[in-house]
Amino acid sequence: MNTNGVSSLQIRKRKQIKPRNTGDIIFNLANYSIMILLVVVTLYPFLHVLAVSLNEPYDAMRGGITVFPRKFTLVNYQETLNYSQIPWATVITLLRTFFGTLTSVLSTAIVAFVISRRDFFARKFVTVLFIITMYVGGGLIPDYMLLRHLGLLNNFMVYLLPQLINPFNVIVMRSYMDSNIPEELAESAMVDGASDFLIFRKIVIPLCMPVLAVIGLFVAVGQWNSWFDTYLYCSGNPRLTTLQFELQKILTSAAASSTIDYYSTHDPHRAMKVTPESLRMAMTIIVTLPIILVYPFIQRYFIHGLTIGALKG
Amino acid sequence: MKATPVPESKILVPVGKKNWKKIIKRQRYLLLMVVSFIIWILIFRYVPLWGWVMAFQDYKPWLPITQQEWVGWKFFIEIFQDPVFYRAMRNTLAMSFLGFFIGFPLPIILALLLNELRNIKFRRTVQTISYLPYFVSWVVVASIVFRMLSPTDGIINQILLSLNLIDRPIAFMGEPQFFWWIVVFSTVWKEVGWNSIIFLAAISGIDPQLYEAATIDGAGRFRKMWHITLAGIMPTIIVLLVMSIGHLINIGFERQFLLRTGPTRDMAEVIDLYILTYGLGAGRFSFGTAAGVFKSVVSLILLTFANWLSKKTTGYRVI
Predict the structure, then answer these.
(1) CA A189 → CA A46, A50, A197, B26, B151, distances in Å?
(2) pLDDT in tens, B66-125
(3) Which among A21, A130, A288 has the least Cβ separation from residue B140?
(4) pTM for this model (two decimals)
(5) What is the domain count for chain A?
(6) Number of domains into which chain B is organized
(7) Residue B264: which domain range?
(8) In a domain, B240, yes or no
(9) Residues of B in contact with A244 (CB under 8 A)
(10) Chain-chain contact of A15 with B211 (C-beta, under 8 angstroms)
């Protein structure tokens, strides 16, 4: 009896009990090798960029650096941070990430809450209104003209307003609310005289923290990573530059293979200390570091969010 | 009897006419909460749709909208006679199809292989690492790609040289014939891990007893993968396949913009970049809007087709 219990546990845990033949062993070997290769191919670029960024620029030019700096130095970072635009770009990026996420999550939650209420008289109308926009959009030029007419060009609000609500997120939140807010809760609150807004604030929001957090994370990453809106709408105002945009500027000058780097045209003295390549490596790390640092801790929330969304979609 | 509030969900539409005033009054808070966002979406998503009329006008920004001159299909004809437009179409479709044929199967294969890993810790670690590039911005990825493919410092060239496959470094980023492949493989590098999640979730829904039964029947590793795992997630695959059709023309333009160089510009110009360069950039708003309208219409057609297709195929598998 005992042995039976143990062996059925084993069967439940693994689909195969032991490698059955050499074909199996070879397959496992190949599989593990492929996975290791995948890990290397994924991580090596980051480690390499990090290593070059921490290496003396003229030494790095000699080549041969893989994942460890040969001659450690922080000069690349010093120069990047001293370069006048980066600190300000960091401020703007942080501001837009914080406020953009806050406003977006709140707005999405409100809309999701309202359309999750089955008795809401305009429910179908609002839902369809939002869903249609998932399939058809204005296009590059009409969007641009609109923002121009609204005075949002070269304006910080252009980082918050146009992308305030993503209908997909609304759907995800609504399905979460549908399955997690028991109707009786809302009903008893209403019997007690609570207004809809109070129900939203005191019942729905606390209960929906997980999905709010997941959506918030996705929005935050999106805000942190965006650069094209800066390029298109804020090129005229250097005080609205973002980290990604700064990196993009130096990247494009590299792509144009200008040996006179973007940097040296602004300050010839500085150009002596670092090479454009090392500068770009340092800037790449600065721009992506927060994501990489935070990622291991929150990645499972992203997965959770994806499965919620996928189940509904 | 005192009128107790009836639970909202049990309210049926009364026979006879609805008392709108009463409904709105009772739901006034809900309405209040949502009305600003209705206004928001009308402004930011529906007004631009109205902007499509610019495609039929000779739009001059200094004139108010009512005084614009109507030119009908003039700009559409101009677009369809522009060889550069066809080049943009070619580029868009090429990268779309290449990206699809390479980028669609790979996450599936990855999911299948991950599923065969028996060491759960190892598998979780690999998975976590594989999702990382998805969260990094395309600017950073482009920066990395430039470095990896650099003729002087890049690892790819170093590997090829040491394997004696080439005798001089190749400047990949500057060679037009490589551009599409660079875009496709960068995308794969960035997204294969993340895209495998859906398939892994689908795999976890397969009944484990199927595997036991197959083992008893003497099925080997590959037969099980083919007949059970792959067959089990076929519905998911089909759904995603159909969804991909809908997005064929909407491949975006960020990576092409970031990865292009002087020599590769002609291969990199997708429709959105075409609109950006010759429409917005040249101040030819009507022209650019017309191209955008065309793109949106094609996208809508594809999406509708994809929807119809998915309705037809949901329920039975292709295999």
Answers:
(1) 52, 55, 11, 15, 68
(2) 788 888 899 999 999 999 999 999 999 999 999 999 999 999 999 999 999 989 999 999
(3) A288
(4) 0.86
(5) 2
(6) 2
(7) 79-313
(8) yes
(9) 137, 139-140
(10) yes
